[in-house]
Write a structure and sequence with these properties.
The protein is α+β, with helices and mostly antiparallel strands and 89 residues long. It is built from three helices and three strands, in the order αββαβα.
C-alpha cells in the first residue's frame, strides 16, 4: 500500500487502495465497512470532498473493540484463504 499519511487506526482497517493511472485513488477496500466518521476523516485528509468509492470485503459491521480483538485472526485467515485459492487453480 502506498504511504498516504492515514491515521494508523484507519489504515489498519484497509485491505487495499486501488489507484488510477494518474496515481489518484480509484477505490478503497476495507475488511469491514468503515464508519461514516472514518470515511469522512479519510476523505478530509486526502482532500477528497466528494470521494465515495469505499468498499468492504465483509458486510458485517464491527465495533472498534471487536476489530481490535480479532483483526490479527481475520487478516491471517483471509490471507490464508487467498493463498489456498491460488493452490486450487
Amino acid at each position: 500500500m502506498k504511504k498516504l499519511n492515514i491515521p494508523s487506526e484507519i489504515e489498519d482497517k484497509i485491505f487495499e487502495i486501488k489507484f488510477n493511472s494518474d496515481a489518484s485513488i480509484f477505490k478503497i477496500i476495507s475488511y469491514f465497512p468503515l464508519s461514516e466518521f472514518e470515511r469522512q476523516s479519510f476523505s478530509s485528509l486526502l482532500n477528497f470532498t466528494t470521494f465515495s468509492e469505499f468498499h468492504s470485503i465483509f458486510t458485517d459491521t464491527v465495533t472498534d473493540d471487536e476489530w481490535n480483538k480479532t483483526k490479527n485472526q481475520i487478516k491471517k485467515r483471509f490471507q490464508n484463504e487467498l493463498f489456498d485459492i491460488d493452490h486450487k487453480l
